[in-house]
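stuck on this chain:
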Amino acid sequence: MNYWLIKSDPETYGWDEMKEDQETFWDGVRNYQARNFMKLMEIGDICLFYLSNKEKAICGEVVISKSFYQDPTTDDDKWVAVDVKFKRTYQKLIYLKDIKETEGLEQMHLVKNSRLSVSPVTPSEYKIISNLEAS
């Protein structure tokens, strides 16, 4: 199993919508590096759901329920989508400022390349995030 971080602008698709829908396709990624990460996602991988803009926080988790396929929002075959399924809401938000201040998360893609909308998370980073959420 692998871990990922996916970003969403709450005005476009927020966490409440994710919880209500329970499952959706993750589309609209137009960055080659993020697209390449999406091609590596496998069914069962866990994604941290990050709210960008105002919140700048991880709010919960989704699971990959279908690996990559042609993005249905474009005819351009360079772009892909994956399906994600609601897993759980965090007890508290994990804010970007806290991530930046936490030992062991300094090299996280979210910290090093904050503009990337899809990025890998190492198992140790995932464990640290889980501990932050539980504390």
Notes: The first strand starts at residue 3 and ends at 8. The beta strands are 3-8, 23-26, 46-51, 57-70, 80-95, 118-121.
